[in-house]
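#onboarding

Welcome to the new folks! Below is a worked example of what a typical request in this channel looks like: someone posts a single protein sequence, and someone else replies with the predicted structure as tokens. Don't worry about understanding the tokens yet, we'll cover that in week two.

Example request:
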Amino acid sequence: ETDPNRVQELQRLAGDEDALATFLREPVSRADLETLAWLRSQKVRAARERLAAARTGYQQSADLKDLVALYRAFLRETKTRVGPEKSRRATESIAPYPNIDALSGELVAKSVAIAFQRLRRTVRDVVADAERAHANAARLVEARRIVEADVELHESLVKVMRARLESGKSTQAALLAFQSRLESLRTESAILGQQETAVRAQWNRLLNRAEQAPVNLDIPPVKPKPDASDAGQLVRHALVEEQALRIASLSAERAALAVRLAETMTLPRMDLGSSRFERERAGEAGVQRGRTFPEPGRMVRPRWDFGVREAQVTEMRARSRAAERSRDAVRDKTQADVRAAWFSLDAAQRRWAVHRKELVPLAERSFDSTRGAYEGNRTGYIELLDSARRLLRARLGLVDARRDFAHARAQLIQAVGVRIATKR
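Example response:
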């Protein structure tokens, strides 16, 4: 959603505390807040460092493979066959098939892919938190405006009640009822003022600043945009894009590679006659120290070492099966989370629409009608008080529905893994 040039500008602001403080003196859009949040987030920086470390390990694995290849080429040229290469067979027979170096590189590559998906998940969560924070600020500003307007309304109604009481057209109970309601609204306004401190702290935590640092929270209300995607379409997107599911799938693949690596390094050292492994599986593993797989009943390594290594392979296979089951569980949870988030978004959108189109206009007309009837002595003060309460409840309901829509959209982003509109 954010223009690349805008991202570069915000990146410059994110690295300059004074410029950022100046920027935050003006109202900030949701897209700008999201971008600044992940640019300054310590969690994102930590995830980037873990990704860089994983890439370093991959480079080291590739370098080691090149070094081994050079060493083998040297031995083939000189035919010195020194050290571990002094067997009668060629050096290619030393490492059983599949190649240990290749498997090690694939394992490290999977670790790099997992670290990258964890970085994406961290950025996704920060963006969702920023959307919630922006919605909370917009709700706070709008709710304070509505409550303050209601305070002014009830102050005028109290004056009317007092004048009617002095003229004998009203009762003391009516005046006390509206005075009580006025004090309740003033208390609510003060509470909303205190909530501003909490919202400001939420923004500053996202931006990695001191909690009391000044921030302009005068956010205009944002009209919810309907999402045309259905639950089935969102589930299909999530099964491809959701980071937790990708991490689980990559972990299962890495566990399967670890099993292959453990078998490759272990099976050629085992005695076939004493092993529970099949002859065909053992035969595929290759040779050890320049020899074909030993005859049954003959041990290349001590029997105690054989049992330890066999237990290691068994453990790796159990871990691989557990990783596959975990991946299936994450897939099921992803589908359930996406459907729940979609239903929450749809419900919030419906509530916002009904408040905007029906409940608020009806409450306003009802209050105007009841106030005119009260001034004409055609109804009592109880009806007027109830009408004012319904009006406030409808207006605050509209604000809450707008905030709930933003929260549900943030929940959907986390459930699917990307924004459906941009696939990012």
